[in-house]
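Subject: design request, 215 residues
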Protein backbone atom coordinates (compact mmCIF):
# COMPACT_ATOMS: atom_id res chain seq x y z
CA UNK A 1 0.00 0.00 0.00
CA UNK A 2 2.77 2.48 0.84
CA UNK A 3 4.56 1.77 -2.43
CA UNK A 4 1.35 2.36 -4.37
CA UNK A 5 0.78 5.71 -2.65
CA UNK A 6 4.36 6.78 -3.38
CA UNK A 7 4.04 5.92 -7.06
CA UNK A 8 0.77 7.83 -7.35
CA UNK A 9 2.52 10.89 -5.93
CA UNK A 10 5.46 10.60 -8.33
CA UNK A 11 3.60 9.80 -11.53
CA UNK A 12 0.44 11.10 -13.11
CA UNK A 13 -0.56 7.53 -13.83
CA UNK A 14 0.29 4.47 -11.82
CA UNK A 15 0.67 0.76 -12.19
CA UNK A 16 -1.05 0.06 -8.85
CA UNK A 17 -4.49 0.55 -10.35
CA UNK A 18 -6.83 -1.95 -11.92
CA UNK A 19 -6.21 -2.71 -15.61
CA UNK A 20 -7.56 -0.07 -17.96
CA UNK A 21 -10.54 -0.94 -20.11
CA UNK A 22 -11.05 1.30 -23.12
CA UNK A 23 -14.74 1.93 -22.49
CA UNK A 24 -14.87 5.72 -22.15
CA UNK A 25 -15.79 5.97 -18.47
CA UNK A 26 -12.26 6.52 -16.99
CA UNK A 27 -13.26 5.04 -13.62
CA UNK A 28 -10.13 2.90 -13.34
CA UNK A 29 -7.77 5.82 -14.04
CA UNK A 30 -6.09 7.33 -10.96
CA UNK A 31 -6.48 10.98 -10.06
CA UNK A 32 -3.91 13.39 -11.44
CA UNK A 33 -2.96 14.41 -14.95
CA UNK A 34 0.03 14.41 -17.26
CA UNK A 35 -1.21 17.89 -18.10
CA UNK A 36 -4.16 20.00 -17.06
CA UNK A 37 -5.28 22.91 -19.17
CA UNK A 38 -4.66 23.85 -22.80
CA UNK A 39 -4.18 27.42 -24.00
CA UNK A 40 -5.87 29.27 -26.86
CA UNK A 41 -2.99 31.57 -27.91
CA UNK A 42 -4.77 33.09 -30.91
CA UNK A 43 -7.92 33.94 -28.97
CA UNK A 44 -6.11 35.25 -25.88
CA UNK A 45 -8.21 33.06 -23.60
CA UNK A 46 -7.17 31.56 -20.26
CA UNK A 47 -6.36 27.88 -20.04
CA UNK A 48 -9.30 25.59 -20.54
CA UNK A 49 -10.19 22.64 -18.32
CA UNK A 50 -8.85 19.84 -20.52
CA UNK A 51 -7.19 17.02 -18.58
CA UNK A 52 -4.89 14.64 -20.45
CA UNK A 53 -3.46 11.44 -18.99
CA UNK A 54 -1.23 8.67 -20.25
CA UNK A 55 -0.28 5.24 -19.01
CA UNK A 56 1.87 2.38 -20.23
CA UNK A 57 0.40 -0.98 -19.35
CA UNK A 58 1.65 -4.16 -20.96
CA UNK A 59 2.01 -3.70 -24.71
CA UNK A 60 -0.05 -0.51 -24.97
CA UNK A 61 0.16 3.21 -24.51
CA UNK A 62 -3.16 4.29 -23.01
CA UNK A 63 -4.37 7.89 -23.05
CA UNK A 64 -7.44 9.90 -22.24
CA UNK A 65 -8.78 13.41 -22.70
CA UNK A 66 -11.49 14.90 -20.54
CA UNK A 67 -12.65 18.29 -21.70
CA UNK A 68 -15.31 20.87 -20.92
CA UNK A 69 -17.15 22.05 -24.03
CA UNK A 70 -20.32 24.09 -23.66
CA UNK A 71 -20.92 24.24 -27.42
CA UNK A 72 -20.79 20.67 -28.79
CA UNK A 73 -20.51 20.65 -32.56
CA UNK A 74 -19.93 17.81 -35.02
CA UNK A 75 -21.07 17.11 -38.55
CA UNK A 76 -22.47 13.88 -40.01
CA UNK A 77 -19.71 11.41 -40.79
CA UNK A 78 -19.16 10.93 -44.51
CA UNK A 79 -15.45 10.15 -44.43
CA UNK A 80 -12.45 10.75 -42.20
CA UNK A 81 -12.19 14.40 -43.16
CA UNK A 82 -15.63 14.96 -41.60
CA UNK A 83 -13.86 14.82 -38.24
CA UNK A 84 -11.91 17.97 -39.14
CA UNK A 85 -15.14 19.99 -39.39
CA UNK A 86 -16.09 19.76 -35.72
CA UNK A 87 -14.99 19.48 -32.11
CA UNK A 88 -12.05 17.16 -31.53
CA UNK A 89 -8.90 16.43 -29.59
CA UNK A 90 -5.61 15.74 -31.32
CA UNK A 91 -2.26 14.04 -30.78
CA UNK A 92 0.79 14.46 -33.01
CA UNK A 93 3.77 12.10 -32.72
CA UNK A 94 7.08 13.08 -34.32
CA UNK A 95 10.50 11.48 -34.05
CA UNK A 96 12.24 14.71 -35.07
CA UNK A 97 12.04 18.21 -33.66
CA UNK A 98 11.79 19.89 -37.07
CA UNK A 99 9.10 17.56 -38.51
CA UNK A 100 11.36 16.96 -41.51
CA UNK A 101 10.58 13.24 -41.40
CA UNK A 102 7.18 11.61 -41.19
CA UNK A 103 5.06 12.52 -38.19
CA UNK A 104 1.72 10.97 -37.29
CA UNK A 105 -1.56 12.62 -36.35
CA UNK A 106 -4.66 11.39 -34.56
CA UNK A 107 -7.72 13.68 -34.55
CA UNK A 108 -10.60 12.23 -32.51
CA UNK A 109 -14.09 13.60 -32.06
CA UNK A 110 -16.68 13.11 -29.29
CA UNK A 111 -18.30 10.24 -31.20
CA UNK A 112 -15.05 8.29 -31.42
CA UNK A 113 -14.56 8.96 -35.12
CA UNK A 114 -10.95 9.37 -36.20
CA UNK A 115 -8.99 11.30 -38.78
CA UNK A 116 -5.56 9.64 -38.75
CA UNK A 117 -2.84 10.51 -41.22
CA UNK A 118 0.87 10.77 -41.85
CA UNK A 119 2.48 14.12 -42.64
CA UNK A 120 5.76 15.85 -43.36
CA UNK A 121 6.67 19.50 -42.99
CA UNK A 122 5.11 21.63 -44.30
CA UNK A 123 1.53 20.35 -44.30
CA UNK A 124 2.10 17.48 -46.71
CA UNK A 125 -0.63 15.06 -45.65
CA UNK A 126 -1.06 11.39 -46.48
CA UNK A 127 -4.62 10.48 -45.53
CA UNK A 128 -4.17 6.88 -46.66
CA UNK A 129 -2.14 6.12 -43.54
CA UNK A 130 -4.07 4.53 -40.67
CA UNK A 131 -3.13 3.80 -37.07
CA UNK A 132 -3.57 0.06 -37.25
CA UNK A 133 -3.82 -0.72 -33.53
CA UNK A 134 -5.67 2.37 -32.32
CA UNK A 135 -8.77 1.65 -30.23
CA UNK A 136 -11.08 4.38 -28.91
CA UNK A 137 -14.09 4.78 -26.67
CA UNK A 138 -15.86 8.05 -25.89
CA UNK A 139 -18.50 9.46 -23.60
CA UNK A 140 -20.46 12.67 -24.04
CA UNK A 141 -22.10 14.61 -21.22
CA UNK A 142 -24.00 17.92 -21.00
CA UNK A 143 -20.95 20.18 -20.80
CA UNK A 144 -18.23 18.18 -22.52
CA UNK A 145 -16.87 14.83 -23.55
CA UNK A 146 -14.05 12.42 -22.92
CA UNK A 147 -11.97 10.32 -25.27
CA UNK A 148 -10.12 7.22 -24.10
CA UNK A 149 -7.79 5.21 -26.30
CA UNK A 150 -4.86 2.87 -26.65
CA UNK A 151 -2.27 2.08 -29.28
CA UNK A 152 0.35 -0.65 -29.32
CA UNK A 153 3.83 0.50 -28.33
CA UNK A 154 5.41 -1.68 -31.00
CA UNK A 155 3.42 0.22 -33.64
CA UNK A 156 4.90 3.48 -32.36
CA UNK A 157 8.33 1.90 -32.41
CA UNK A 158 7.83 0.73 -35.99
CA UNK A 159 7.02 4.34 -36.88
CA UNK A 160 10.46 5.32 -35.60
CA UNK A 161 9.51 6.66 -32.18
CA UNK A 162 12.07 5.75 -29.54
CA UNK A 163 12.05 6.26 -25.81
CA UNK A 164 12.17 10.01 -26.45
CA UNK A 165 10.11 11.75 -29.13
CA UNK A 166 8.09 14.91 -29.79
CA UNK A 167 4.44 15.24 -28.89
CA UNK A 168 1.70 17.73 -29.69
CA UNK A 169 -1.53 17.88 -27.68
CA UNK A 170 -4.36 19.99 -29.07
CA UNK A 171 -8.08 20.64 -29.11
CA UNK A 172 -10.49 22.31 -31.52
CA UNK A 173 -13.68 23.80 -30.08
CA UNK A 174 -16.23 24.90 -32.65
CA UNK A 175 -18.69 27.63 -31.78
CA UNK A 176 -20.37 27.07 -35.14
CA UNK A 177 -19.43 26.00 -38.68
CA UNK A 178 -16.88 28.78 -39.19
CA UNK A 179 -16.09 29.76 -35.62
CA UNK A 180 -13.39 27.71 -33.92
CA UNK A 181 -11.10 28.15 -30.94
CA UNK A 182 -7.76 26.33 -31.24
CA UNK A 183 -6.17 25.08 -28.05
CA UNK A 184 -2.62 23.78 -27.66
CA UNK A 185 -0.42 22.44 -24.87
CA UNK A 186 2.61 24.36 -26.21
CA UNK A 187 2.23 27.90 -27.51
CA UNK A 188 3.18 27.74 -31.22
CA UNK A 189 5.31 30.52 -32.64
CA UNK A 190 2.79 31.60 -35.24
CA UNK A 191 0.53 34.61 -35.68
CA UNK A 192 -2.14 32.45 -37.29
CA UNK A 193 -3.61 29.18 -35.98
CA UNK A 194 -1.26 26.37 -37.00
CA UNK A 195 -0.35 23.17 -35.18
CA UNK A 196 1.76 21.73 -38.01
CA UNK A 197 4.91 23.59 -37.04
CA UNK A 198 7.83 22.45 -34.85
CA UNK A 199 7.21 25.04 -32.14
CA UNK A 200 3.90 23.34 -31.26
CA UNK A 201 5.69 20.17 -30.11
CA UNK A 202 7.28 19.23 -26.79
CA UNK A 203 10.03 16.71 -26.19
CA UNK A 204 8.73 13.84 -24.08
CA UNK A 205 9.79 10.39 -22.97
CA UNK A 206 8.29 7.18 -21.73
CA UNK A 207 8.51 7.14 -17.95
CA UNK A 208 7.84 4.26 -15.60
CA UNK A 209 4.14 4.19 -16.36
CA UNK A 210 3.36 6.76 -19.04
CA UNK A 211 4.71 9.83 -20.83
CA UNK A 212 6.36 12.80 -19.20
CA UNK A 213 8.12 15.94 -20.52
CA UNK A 214 11.89 15.94 -20.94
CA UNK A 215 13.27 18.83 -18.93
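Subject: RE: design request

Done. Sequence follows.
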Amino acid sequence: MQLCLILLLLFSVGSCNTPIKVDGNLEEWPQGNFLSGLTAPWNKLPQDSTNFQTRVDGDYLFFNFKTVDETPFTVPFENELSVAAGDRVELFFSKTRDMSEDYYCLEMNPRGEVLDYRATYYRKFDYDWDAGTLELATMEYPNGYQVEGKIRINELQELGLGNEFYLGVYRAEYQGPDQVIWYSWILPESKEPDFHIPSSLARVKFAQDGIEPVK
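The chain has one domain: 2-213.
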